[in-house]
């Protein structure tokens, strides 16, 4: 019998990790939106998140704006960006170039997504294109392998989507879990869930995933439940209805302040339930607004690990 390892004889060396914190941002559509976004970024930066994700338009429609935002985050802030990347509408060669470009700019985290299909598009595999997130993960790993020396033998962190409620195109919740397991086998490091409205949805996903052999962290994606319009729109997209009592309470609110308090309280309850179920962190969908997100974070009282302040780098004007 082999002697016990150092880790086995010193259990305190493997203490619990702190709760992870991250936010989602999307590239601005105009100058006014950019100014507002950067006010939000500065507020969020002060909370010391582990990373911020930057969305990517359908078929790469806002690629240049997304890359510009990623560059500014890398050069003007202390934030670590996670770049969304979708494979719909691009072939493998085009996507390999985009991945290389992201790595050249200093991005070390990619959220690999299939992306929304254009209206009327076929779900059948198209010749020359990557059709599933699993294919994109494998392509990222191939690009990474070719650039090992440039990355100092480092590894790109690859995230994927997970679905607490059945994906609209999926035949079953079990199929969603099988897809998540396939993504893990292809090289995914962690998953972030799509929006959910009921605590048991995340807990059930975690149970089903672990039973199926999924071992990667599954981070719950939580949105501030403060806007009736946004809740109704997301319910249409996901097929999952918010709690009627919450919609009723928000609708009865006398003003925006009361509506925000009601929504923040409901969001905190949802996030706490996910943490109690075993969530390794919280990913907040900010919709480029920091007020409600910071209210949620304040009431959650997550302990954030301290990090030394890093000097900001500024680029000289071209």
Distance between the termini: 65 Å
Task: Give the CA-based shape.
Answer: globular
Strand content: 5-15%
Roughly what is the average pLDDT, rounded to an integer? Answer: 88
- Radius of gyration, CA atoms, in whole angstroms: 20 Å
Relative helix content = 40-55%
Query: What's the architecture, going by CATH?
Result: Alpha-Beta Barrel
Biggest β-sheet: strands ordered side by side in the sheet:
7-6-5-4-3-2-1-9-8
Record field, number of beta strands: 9
CATH topology: TIM Barrel
String of helices and strands: HEHEHEHEHEHEHEEHHHEH
CATH class: Alpha Beta
Poorly predicted regions: 313-318
**Biggest sheet descriptor:** 9 strands, parallel
Descriptive notes:
This protein has 318 residues and is an alpha/beta fold. It has one domain (18-116, 129-300): TIM Barrel. The chain contains 11 helices and 9 strands. The protein has helices spanning 6-9, 31-45, 63-76, 92-105, 133-146, 173-186, 199-212, 228-238, 244-252, 256-276, 291-300, and strands at residues 20-25, 51-54, 81-86, 109-113, 157-162, 190-193, 218-219, 221-222, 281-285. Mean pLDDT is 88; it is low at 313-318.
């Amino acid at each position: 019998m082999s002697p016990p390892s150092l880790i086995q004889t010193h259990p305190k060396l493997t203490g619990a990790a702190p709760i992870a914190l991250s936010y989602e941002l999307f590239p601005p559509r105009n100058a006014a939106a950019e100014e507002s976004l950067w006010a939000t970024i500065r507020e969020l930066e002060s909370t010391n998140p582990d990373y911020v994700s930057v969305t990517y338009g359908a078929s790469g429609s806002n690629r240049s704006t997304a890359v510009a935002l990623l560059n500014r985050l890398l050069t003007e802030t202390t934030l670590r960006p996670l770049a969304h990347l979708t494979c719909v509408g691009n072939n493998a060669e085009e996507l390999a170039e985009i991945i290389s470009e992201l790595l050249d700019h200093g991005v070390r985290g990619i959220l690999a997504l299939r992306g929304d299909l254009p209206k009327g598009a076929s779900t059948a595999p198209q010749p020359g294109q990557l059709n599933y997130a699993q294919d994109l993960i494998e392509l990222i790993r191939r690009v990474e392998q070719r650039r090992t020396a440039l990355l100092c033998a480092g590894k790109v962190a690859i995230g994927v989507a997970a679905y607490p409620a059945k994906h609209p195109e999926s035949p079953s919740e079990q199929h969603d879990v099988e897809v998540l397991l396939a993504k893990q086998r292809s090289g995914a490091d962690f998953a972030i869930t799509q929006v959910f409205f009921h605590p048991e949805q995340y807990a059930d996903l975690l149970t089903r995933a672990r039973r199926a052999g999924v071992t990667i962290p599954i981070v719950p994606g939580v949105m501030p439940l403060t806007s009736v319009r946004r809740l109704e729109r997301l319910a249409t997209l996901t097929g999952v209805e918010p709690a009627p009592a919450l919609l009723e309470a928000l609708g009865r609110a006398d003003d925006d302040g009361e509506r925000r308090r009601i929504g923040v309280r409901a969001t905190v309850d949802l996030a706490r339930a996910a943490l109690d179920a075993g969530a390794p962190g919280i990913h907040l969908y900010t919709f480029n607004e920091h007020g409600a997100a910071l209210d949620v974070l304040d009431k959650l009282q997550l302990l954030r690990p301290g990090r030394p302040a890093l000097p900001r780098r500024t680029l000289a004007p071209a």
